[in-house]
Specification:
Blueprint lengths: L1 E10 L6 H11 L4 E8 L13 E5 L5 H11 L2 E7 L3 E3 L3 H9 L7 E9 L19 E6 L2 E2 L5 E2 L2 E5 L5 E3 L6 E5 H6 L13 H11 L3 E11 L11 H17 L4 H12 L4 H12 L4 H11 L5 H8 E2 L5 H11 L1 H8 L10 E3 L14 E9 L2 E8 L7 E6 L4 E5 H5 L2
Helix pairs in contact: 6-7, 6-8
Amino acid sequence: MKQGLSIIVTIRGDEPQTANTCMNAKEKAGCPVEIIAVYDGTPYDPDLQSYADKILEHRTARGIGQSRHKGINAARYSVVMLIDAHMDFEEGFGQKILDHFRKKKHYKDVACGRCVPSMLDLSPIRDDDGSVSHGYTAARFSIRSEETGGEKWCLSGKWSEQEVETEIGCVFGACYAFRKKWYEEIGEPLNLLSGWWGDEEYLSIASWLAGGRCYLIDFWASHLFRDRPSFTWTKAERMAPSVNRSRLVDLFPASDDMNENFRAWLELSISAADRDYLTAYDANRVRPEVIEAKKLWKTWTKNVDSFLDRWVDDEAQPLNVRTQMREEARPWKQEQSTMVLPPVDVPRVQQRKVIVCPNCGHGNSFRVKSTQRINGELRRYGRCGNLVCKNKAVMIDRGSEQVIYWGKDASRI
């Protein structure tokens, strides 16, 4: 297989920074690159053709795992990198990744760089001395974890600071790479996911249990963090993270007692009705690859104890402590939410590729709340992506063009 980097970006809902993300990746990689864009139940943007070498589609949304899996299968280079649709990168990051994987001892790695919070234009937030913010990585897992949404999850990766060029417990930060052949050897774990969320834990745990590892390479990638997705979830999609977590526990080749404790912890945050719904939902979607993966994971039993001893903490922090820790670890979040660009004079009707809010001047962002198809037109209802601006908007896809109406004009539609 050719030496180069296949970069896979997945798109769901409204992602106005996709073209900029692909441009950043292609121009700054410093090595041969192909960009593979996978649209998950979302009409693709023709403007992306200037940057993407391949554009793939799921007509019906299948989720982050199966979308990335589709892109990996289409990759022509030996090393694959997965990214989100709102990122920037350090110059030469791609060459650093390839240099890492050229070494035989790194063949079984799943690797990431430092994840740095970004400004609204995707550029990295910098410290007072002008250097790029340290960012965060995931160093460890927790057997029991109360998340900020109230869910009780098992084997959940945790944010932490970590020195570069070292092993870590879990890759984090919407930007990680591995050899395509190694992904196949560990059972193609992304193809086991339902909906969105869970890909980092599946990749990392599978790599460790199969005799590989996770590694932090010395490069940064900036990421525009958001508090909610840019699309409206169905009930099944809202439940998918719990499905993925339950499936991970089922796959994990631990003792029966440990798996029973896992399940008891998971069930504390799920009502009886939701548990029945999850069981029925997952039973209808258990694919042959999931059954085969369970057989494969059982062969990794010999590595379970070393993984648990090295990377997994036994106790969970209470939810209020976890929430406080998260907020203290993200001082840049407040800075992001209060950034307001100077108001500008813009037309009420705009082409989609240049979205500027006439209320606050915020550029290149639109937060979708709901989507409808009326008289052949695809209408996306939402508001300005600036968290401190409440200006409503409606984006209408008319086939040959996409236009956006703001404020009072949007209220009339």
